[in-house]
Design goal:
This protein is α+β, with helices and mostly antiparallel strands. α4 runs antiparallel to α5 (about 270-295). A five-stranded antiparallel sheet has the order 2-1-5-4-3. Strands 7-9-10-12-11 form a five-stranded mixed sheet, covered by helices on one side. The protein folds into three domains: about 5-160, Beta-Lactamase, CATH 3.30.450; about 220-295; about 305-450, Heat Shock Protein 90, CATH 3.30.565.10. The chain is rod-shaped. The protein is about 50% helix and about 20% strand. The chain has helices at about 5-55, 155-190, 190-205, 220-265, 270-295, 310-320, 345-360, 420-430; strands spanning about 80-85, 90-95, 115-120, 125-135, 145-155, 305, 330-335, 340, 365-375, 380-390, 435-440, 445-450.
Length: about 450
């Protein structure tokens, strides 16, 4: 079953059917035991009434009076039968209802202890029988044991049982129908938030809305939050690509116009070659910058974080090889293990550009520090600090160093786009900020605050 509603309804139907079946069996068993107990009590009452009416003191008189307490004992074929016999089997009295009928000899029992069991008449009719042995002392003579047998056909018991079972089946069927209808309504009400989420996702796919906006139960809160994060992440990626392509097209206009003008002018070969080299270098810088900017991944929705320490050590080892001739001391510090909830390539780009810039200006030492930051558990973050012992950056240039193409010293190798890429990643992708201060090592300290 691909429908969640059908799966739950099928499971609920099986549970209701099983529960009502067990309930029906339990009620049927309880009713049978109750009916048998009532039958036993009725037969025992008949025994006590017969004993109260019997007279064993005068053997020449009738043991039982002509009129009995229960009229059925005087009506042939009434279904209620009784007989009185001595312990040796001699019949003393039998009720008029036993006309043409014989009760089997009574099983042995202790005096005063009733014995209730199922028996059969001489013609095979099933009966409920109660046997009661009584010890009677008459006129100071020797006591005699008498056995009272009272029996009733099972017809009334079976009629009661059939009637109860018909009623029980009707009520259980009605109860099952009501429970299933209620279950359907409860499932529709309970699963309604899922249907609403699906409808909102469909509207997002069609472009009718930008994200899921409904107010949903706590159980769906994480799902809605992650879906919105995924939607925003995809939209941000698409927007960055569109903006980068637009910026790239716009940035190409001026160099192409210059090249077009140079090609149609009267400039000499040397001047034309210099113009072409300058504009090609400009185009190269522009393409590199925009491609790096467009490739930023940002926070990876629904992705697990990764440890920052291995990435720092990779940067450390790479820069040690690149700047081996300067014999720099590259230190990596972490207050405690931290994780990054974003793209590894973005973090590598940020740390790599900051550390590479520090190595260019450093004299002997560069220090990279990573620690947890942000607004607490609700919105974690990461702080990256890169320090060097170089000449430092004047305060009036702290913001300009992040502009694309700006180079504090043209004698130092570079294109002037590394810190601009860092700024775009920190500001636009991870909604953080960049700070430039003086380092305790004597040079500059660049601090990047990243939010997830």
């Amino acid at each position: 079953m691909r429908s969640l509603n059908a799966r739950l309804l099928s499971a609920a139907t099986l549970v209701v059917a099983g529960f009502l079946s067990l309930t029906g069996l339990a009620l049927d068993q309880a009713f049978r035991e109750s009916a048998l107990t009532a039958m036993r009590d009725r037969l025992q009452t008949q025994v006590y009434m017969l004993l109260s009416a019997a007279s064993f003191d005068k053997p020449d008189k009738r043991v039982m009076p002509a009129t009995l307490p229960d009229p059925r004992l005087s009506t042939p074929g009434s279904g209620l039968y009784a007989q009185l016999s001595r312990e040796d089997g001699t019949l003393v009295w039998r009720s008029s209802s036993m006309l043409g009928m014989v009760l089997a000899p009574a099983p042995m029992s202790q005096p005063g202890v009733p014995l209730f069991h199922v028996a059969e008449s001489g013609d095979g009719t099933p009966l409920f029988e109660l046997v009661f042995k009584v010890r009677w002392e008459a006129g100071g003579g020797a006591p005699h044991n008498y056995i009272v047998q009272v029996a009733e056909t099972t017809a009334s018991y079976e009629d009661q049982l059939r009637s109860f079972r018909r009623s029980l089946r009707s009520w259980l069927a009605a109860g099952a129908a009501v429970l299933l209808v209620m279950q359907v309504l409860i499932l529709r009400w309970g699963l309604r938030p899922l249907r609403l989420v699906a409808e909102e996702v469909t509207r997002v796919e069609r472009g009718n809305q930008s994200e899921i906006r409904g107010d949903y139960p706590a159980e769906l809160g994480g799902l809605v939050t992650n879906l919105n994060a995924l939607i925003r992440s995809s939209a941000a990626h698409l927007e960055r690509y569109r903006r980068s392509l637009g910026d790239l097209a716009h940035s190409f206009k001026t160099p192409l116009a210059v090249l077009r003008g140079a090609a149609g002018g009267d400039a000499g070969p040397e001047e034309l070659r210099q113009t072409v080299k300058e504009q090609v270098r400009r185009l190269d810088h522009t393409v590199a910058y925009q491609l790096q900017r467009a490739a930023a991944s940002g926070r990876r929705a629904l992705a697990a974080p990764f440890a920052v320490a291995p990435l720092l050590h990779r940067v450390q080892q790479s820069l040690a090889k690149v700047y081996a001739g300067k014999h720099l001391q590259l230190d990596v510090r972490m207050e405690r293990p931290v994780e990054f909830f974003g793209d590894e390539g973005d973090l590598l780009e940020i740390i790599g550009n900051l550390a590479d810039n520090a190595c260019k200006w450093a004299r002997r030492q560069v220090r990279i520090t990573a620690r947890a930051g942000g607004d607490g558990a609700a919105r974690p973050g990461l702080i990256i600090e890169v320090e060097d012992d170089g000449p430092g950056i004047p305060p009036q240039e702290w913001q300009r160093v992040f502009e694309r193409g700006y180079r504090a010293d043209t004698a130092v190798e570079g294109h002037g786009i590394g810190l601009a890429i860092v700024r775009d990643l920190v500001d636009e992708v991870y909604h953080g900020r960049l700070e430039v201060t003086d380092s305790k090592l004597g040079g500059a300290c660049v601090r990047a605050h990243l939010r997830f």
